[in-house]
Amino acid sequence: MRSVTVGILGLGNVGAGTVRLLHERRAAIEARLGAVIEVRRICVRDPGRRRAVDVAPELITADPRALIADPMIDVVVELIGGVEPACSYILAALRAGKHVVTANKAVLAERGAEIFAAAAAHGRAVYFEGSVAGGIPVLRSLREGLASDRIEAVAGIVNGTSNFILDAMTRSGADFAEALRGAQAAGYAEADPTLDVSGGDAAHKLALLAMVAWGVRVHPTAIAVEGITGVSAQDIRAAGELGYLIKSLAIAHDSAAGPCLRVHPTLVPRGHVLAGVTGAYNAVLVESRALGRSLYYGRGAGMMPTAVAVVSDILELARDLVAGVAPPVAAAVRDLPPPRADGGPTTFELLEHENYLCVQVPNLPGVLGRVATCLGRHGVSISRMVQDRPGRGPVPMIMLTESVSERAMQAALGELASSPDLAAPATRIRVLPASLV
Amino acid sequence: MRSVTVGILGLGNVGAGTVRLLHERRAAIEARLGAVIEVRRICVRDPGRRRAVDVAPELITADPRALIADPMIDVVVELIGGVEPACSYILAALRAGKHVVTANKAVLAERGAEIFAAAAAHGRAVYFEGSVAGGIPVLRSLREGLASDRIEAVAGIVNGTSNFILDAMTRSGADFAEALRGAQAAGYAEADPTLDVSGGDAAHKLALLAMVAWGVRVHPTAIAVEGITGVSAQDIRAAGELGYLIKSLAIAHDSAAGPCLRVHPTLVPRGHVLAGVTGAYNAVLVESRALGRSLYYGRGAGMMPTAVAVVSDILELARDLVAGVAPPVAAAVRDLPPPRADGGPTTFELLEHENYLCVQVPNLPGVLGRVATCLGRHGVSISRMVQDRPGRGPVPMIMLTESVSERAMQAALGELASSPDLAAPATRIRVLPASLV
C-alpha cells in the first residue's frame, strides 16, 4: 500500500490529538484513502517530557531542521503556535518542497503574505482548517460547499474563552473579573487571557475567514477590534431586559469598497441562531447570495476537535499525493490597502447599526435633556430608554439608539466624554446589524 | 482554457437554479478552477415551455438518450426527481462512461445498490450533496471535514415541510390540517404532501446520511418511520408546558448491531440547538467521538440552495477531471440485513427513551390507577403527569414516562389500545434520547 509521510512540529495538546487520531483511526483511514499515513518524525522542545499520547521514542527529535530536511517527509504539520519560530519553520518546509498543514492562526494572520508567496513560489500547498473554529469544517465549507456562491457576510463566535465568560456572566450575573477567574479554573482561559478577551485572537480568525471567503488579505490595522473587558454585569442585565444577549462577534461583510471586518461585543436578539451558542462552543453564520443563511457549529478548540481538522487537511493532501497530482496551491489573494489610504472615511465608519448606550449621570433635572441634545447634534436618536434603579447620586441611564453610522456615533461619544454630566465614561455596545438578524 | 462539459436532465426549479448559478458565477468559477464549465445540452420534457432561466434554444433537447450518448459530455446532472425514469437515465449515463451528479434522494434511497454497483463497475463517480439538506454541505462535512472521526449519531431536521407545519402549529396553536393549508398556500408543501408529512422523504435522506457516515446501506424496512399527521395542537401545547418543542427528527446512531435509523416526531427540550431551527430551515446535528457535537444549518430546499450543492459537486468532479485524475468512486458500502433476520428484537426495539403519552379517559375514580397499572405491567413508569382541563366526560391525561425500551413501550401501548377506559387511541411521542440532549 502507498504511504504518505508526515513530520509533526510540536507535540502539545493538538499534536498529541493528531497522533492519537491517526493511530486510532488507522484502519478507517486506510480503507478510505487506499494509503497509509505514516508519522515519520515528531519534533519537540524537550524530548524528556511526559506526553498525552504514547509515541515510539525513535520518532522524537529536538531538531526541527532535520525533520524539515528529511527527504522522505511529504507533509510538515506545524502545531507549535505563535509567530516565531513557527513562521521560519513553515517557510523552510515550503522551500524544502513540503506541503504544510497548520492550525496556527497567529502566524497566518501576521505573516500570511510571506507564507502564501513562498507556497506559490515553490508550488506547495498550505492548509489551515484547524486555525479557525477548531474542528468545525467551516473553511472547507466556504471553499468547497459554497464554492459557486457569492459570500455576502460572515458572523462568528470564534473565541471560546470570550463566549464562555460572557455566557457565565449572563447565567450567574457575575462581573467580568469573577467570570474570568471561573473560566481560568475550568481550563477555558489561559493564565494570561489577553489575546482571547481583547478580541485579538478572533481578529486573526476573521482575517482567515475573509481570505477564504473573498480572496483578500485585509491589512491588520483595517480590522476594528474591541474586547469584552468593558462589558459589565449591568450591561448584560440591561441588554437582557431589552431582549438581547451580549456576544463577542467577529463580523465581516462584503461591500463595494471591499470587505469590512470587525470584532466587538454585540447585542444579539434572544432567539437568534447565534444567541443559542453557549459555553466554549463556536459557530460561524454565513450569508451568501444563493444559499442564504447557513451556520456551522461545534467545538472551536481543544485537543481532539482541532486534531480532527488537522487530520482532515492531511487526508486532503494525501488524496492528491496518492493520485500523483499536485495539491491545489492557495488561490490568488489580493492585498487590501490599509484603511484611510485615500483619506476618506473607512467602510467601518460608514457602517450603520443601532447601539446600546449606558451613561452614569446624576439624577437631576435637565441632565437627560443635555445628553439627548448632545447625541442629537450628531444625528443619533434614542429609540428606547431604561433608567436603572433611580435614586440619589449618579444612576445608570440605558438607551438604545436608532440605526446610525459608526462615524456619527463615535463623534457623539467623543463629545459625551467631555461632558461634565457624566460620572464615568459611557459604555457603548453595537447591536447586530439588521441584515444579520 | 480547459473545459469540463455538462449535460443536464431536467430544467425545473433546481435545474434552472444550476444553469443560472453556472452562468452568473462563471468568472469566479473559472478563476478558481482554471477551467470552464460548459453546459452542452439540457433535456426537458416539453421544449416549448417557459423557463425560470434564459437558455439558448439550441441547448434544449427532448431526447435524454442523445444527451447521455453525447461523447463530448463528461458529467450528467440528473435533476428530474422520482425513481423512474431517473434511475434508468443514471444507469445509462454510468454505462456510457459519464460521471453523475444528482439531487434525487428517492432514487438513491430506493435504487442506490444498483446505481453504486454500476458506478463501481464502470469506474465512475456519483455525487449527491444536493439530495440531503439542500445547500448545507453536510455530506461533504461528514466525508471530508470529519473524515478521520468516528460518527456516533446524527439527528436531523431534514424535511422543511414538516418543520414548517410543526413550527406554525407551535406559534399559532393551529391544528395540523390548518397548518398544512397554510404551508401549501405559502409554497412550503406540495398539493399532495404525503411523502413529506409521512416521514418518507426524511427516511430517504437519513438513509443517505447513514451511508456516508458509516458506509452501510440500510434495508428500507429497517427504518422506523412515523409522520407528523398524528400530532395535535393539544400535544404541542402540553409538550410546551412540560418544557419541550415537538420536532420531526431523523435520527441514526451507531451500535454494536449496526446503525439504527428512525424518523418520528420528537420532544426536544426548549433551548436545545435543534429547538431553534424554525420554518423551512434544515439542520443536521452530528455527534462524533473526537469532535463531539457539531451542527450544520441552512436552507434545506429551494431552487438556489439546492443548486449551490449541485454546482459544488460539479466543481469537485471538474477539479479531478482537469487534473486528469479519476474522481474517487464511492467507498465500499455494505448492505445491512433486514431487521429481525435473526428473529430477535431489532436495535430500534432495544432503544431506550422517555415518552410523552396522551390518553383520553373519563374523569372517574380508578381510571388513572388502571392506566398506570397497565403501563407498570410492562415496566413503564410515569415521571410527570398533567391533567388538561378536568371536567365531565373524557379528559386528556398527559404523562411523561421514565426512560424505557421501545419494545416495552410498544407492548404497553398495545394493551392500552384494548382498554375500555380509553375514549380514543393513546398518542405517544418519543423524547429526544439523553445522549443527544
Fold and architecture overview:
Two copies of one chain form a homodimer. Chain A folds into three domains: about 1-135 and about 305-335, NAD(P)-binding Rossmann-like Domain (Rossmann fold); about 140-300, 2-Layer Sandwich (Dihydrodipicolinate Reductase, domain 2); about 350-435, ACT domain (Alpha-Beta Plaits, 2-Layer Sandwich), CATH 3.30.70.260. The first copy, chain A, has 15 helices and 20 strands. Chain A has helices spanning about 15-25, 25-35, 65-70, 85-95, 105-120, 140-145, 160-170, 175-185, 195, 200-215, 235-240, 305-325, 345-350, 365-375, 405-415; strands at about 1-10, 35-45, 60, 75-80, 100, 125, 150-155, 215, 225, 245-255, 260-270, 280-290, 290-300, 335, 350-355, 355-360, 380-385, 395-400, 405, 425-430. In chain A, strands 7, 9, 10, 11, 12, 13, 16, 17, 18 and 20 form a ten-stranded mixed sheet that branches. In chain A, helix 1 crosses helix 12 (about 305-325), helix 4 packs parallel to helix 5 (about 105-120) and helix 7 packs across helix 8 (about 175-185). The model of chain A has no long low-confidence stretch (mean pLDDT about 95). At the A-B interface, helix 1, helix 2, helix 6, strand 13 and helix 12 of A face helix 1, helix 2, helix 6, strand 13 and helix 12 of B.
